[in-house]
Design a protein that fits this description.
The structure is a homodimer. The first copy, chain A, is built from 12 helices and 12 strands. Chain A is an alpha/beta fold. In chain A, strands 2-1-3-12-11-4-5-10-8-9 form a 10-stranded mixed sheet, sandwiched between helices. In chain A, helix 8 packs parallel to helix 9 and helix 11 packs across helix 12. The longest helix of chain A has 19 residues. Chain A starts with a strand and ends with a helix. At the A-B interface, strand 6, strand 7, helix 7, helix 8 and helix 9 of A face strand 6, strand 7, helix 7, helix 8 and helix 9 of B. The complex binds 3-isopropylmalic acid (2 copies). The site of one 3-isopropylmalic acid has 3 residues of chain A, from loops. Chains A, B: It catalyses: tartrate + NAD(+) = 2-hydroxy-3-oxosuccinate + NADH + H(+); (2R,3R)-tartrate + H(+) = (R)-glycerate + CO2; (R)-malate + NAD(+) = pyruvate + CO2 + NADH; (2R,3S)-tartrate + NAD(+) = 2-hydroxy-3-oxosuccinate + NADH + H(+).
């Protein structure tokens, strides 16, 4: 029985990079005897919203909830539709309703991609950011009082639950334990955010007791961002709350040269629901429609998806193909200083798959 | 009548760099005909806490509230005293009770200091981070429910008031307007933090109407941290909430080579209360007691203090002396690859003051 993948290209360059992602997955699947079926969906896009007045059909959960995974391009088009409508109406809904409590992103300096950090070489930067993906600072509790007066104020609660914090920490410690360095770094800010962050620290300490083989440390988020720039070689697995993880998983890829090639997974580790795999770059309205977007983030996200499905070899063959394509420097898109278009770059990676 | 400066060395290397800060201020003051009187206080330190069971005397406000400014070393010693006791018992008390609602930090690549960012030269990175310093994410509202059970949860409110947001934005727009580029960047996260951050954006938009000469833009904090690394030359004045400003004002100095030399001001612009000037580095227990700390953050903070007091020439003479000392590369501390001690470095800067 083939894996059933729900394909959602979404907006902007999401539509342009998706075919290349599928091309490479199909190539790797064929070579490794993996059967994959792609089902295409047009919702979770501005086009759909324009026609239907909402981002997704009422029965979206029935339509894609039974799939093995969701392969997602990008959503959002700030000039046309408010972020809170487009994002909270799709991406954040998936995260919450499919309980994708792990947001996982590799931070790896790839061969052939110059780092903005002086003197860093492939191998120097190679770690994972594990982000809590359902609660924390992204809450819906809060409001405004005395509107339009001088006394006006607005509040929003950060919410951390025992369940929510413990399960992301468990995932992060497990990941650290599976890696050679066995090193976990926790992002905190307990010296300033004096209620929720000390709780986070407390749960890290408690969880660490179950992983005596893992060395762990913690940094306040301010100095941690500084250390991403000054000492990216210090890190192996970095875990953070929804907001801190969000920041670190953009800053990390930036330190490796371009967020244009970074992949991500929104993962429900128990597989009770499909997980979403998407490139870190957004819909990029400024370059959409020109066919010049870099498809590597989409392709790499496909590798993460295959890995999540248990197809390690096929996944590894794609990551290897990306590395070799980048290292050869012949076929690269404009963001990396070349002039290949999206399709040519996707084909080049597909050709490298072994 | 001399300016009356309250001197609080605090903990660790705070005590070691303070004499150098004073040395350089006294030199500049003499050369520029400025009269300064330093009054020394031993509270806001672990030593004081050990003797008295609290960080500061009950009448601390009476003791230092009438001074023209507070010159502050560093506070905190995590192994000996919990951060929330030491920091909330001194630094954060000053910020709140002296209404120091602006936290101001320069991000400037100095001559002779190698940037961790490839190919960046002095002049490429030169901007200010303006941080809201009294409310936002650093609130005291929140708590824990169902402790020690599986249902346990913790909440903490972010609080933004009209007064609090508008006054920091006004300060930032004024600063931008006074600079050649007249460019303001606002840090937001309205696509994820869906109540307080859209309010922040709304107030930025409203405030911008009063400053038609200032070009402004906004970035979500995740991509903004990425842009600090990828495009530090884009920025002129960057304004953020208490948390976002905290992050950006550590990340910014990291991009310029070392947070060991960065200064900061906790400012009450109306001068109803004294402002605090302190280096960005903390008490640094790991190198305390060895006399090797870099005093330049302390000295530069002294220049910011003189500037705040209206003594522009004296302030500028100190910044120039720092630049020349760093550019000559002869007398530098270990963090910058030299082997001068704290005192030698302080004397070198003092000698350069003109
Ligand atoms: C020590 C800590 C509470 C403080 C803060 O977060 O405000 C520090 O990081 C700073 O930036 O001055
Ligand atoms: C689009 C936005 C809501 C989202 C987030 O902050 O979670 C994005 O930045 C991401 O990291 O996937």
């Amino acid at each position: 029985k083939p894996y059933r993948i729900a394909v959602i290209p979404g907006d902007g360059i999401g539509k342009e990079v998706m075919p290349e992602g599928i091309r490479v997955i199909e190539t790797a699947a064929k070579k490794h005897g993996v059967a994959v079926q792609f089902d295409h969906f047009d919702f979770s896009s501005y086009d759909y919203y324009e026609k239907h007045g909402q981002m997704m059909p009422d029965d979206w959960k029935a339509q894609i909830g039974g799939h093995d995974a969701i392969y997602f391009g990008a959503v959002g088009w700030p000039a046309k539709i408010a972020d809170h409508v487009s994002l909270w109406g799709s991406l954040i809904k998936f995260r919450r309703e499919f309980d994708q409590y792990v947001n996982l992103r590799p931070v790896r300096l790839m061969p052939g991609v110059p780092s903005p950090l002086a003197g860093r070489k492939p191998g120097d930067i190679d770690f994972w950011v594990v982000r809590e993906n359902t609660e924390g600072e992204y809450s819906s509790v809060g409001g405004r009082m005395f509107p339009d007066t001088e006394r006006e104020f607005v509040t929003q609660q950060t919410v951390m639950t025992r369940t929510g914090v413990d399960r992301i920490l468990k995932f992060a410690f497990e990941l650290a334990q599976s890696r050679p360095k066995k090193h976990l770094t926790s992002a905190t800010k307990s010296n300033g955010i004096s209620i929720t962050m000390p709780y986070w620290d407390e749960r890290v300490e408690a969880m660490a007791k179950s992983y005596p083989g893992v060395k762990w440390d913690k940094y306040h988020i301010d100095i941690l961002t500084a250390n991403f720039v000054l000492h990216p070689d210090w890190f192996d697995v970095v875990v953070g709350s929804n907001l801190f993880g969000d920041i670190l998983s953009d800053l990390g890829p930036a330190c490796t040269g371009t967020i244009g090639i970074a992949p991500s997974g929104n993962i429900n580790p128990e597989r009770n629901f499909p997980s979403v795999f998407e490139p870190v770059h957004g819909s990029a309205p400024d370059i959409a429609g020109q066919g010049i977007a870099n498809p590597i983030g989409m392709i790499w996200s496909g590798a993460m998806m295959l890995e999540h499905l248990g197809e390690k070899q096929a996944a590894q063959s794609i990551v290897g193909a990306i590395e070799r394509t980048l290292a050869e420097r012949t076929l690269r898109t404009r963001d990396l200083g070349g002039n290949a278009d999206t399709t040519a770059c996707g084909k080049a990676v597909a050709d490298m798959v072994d």
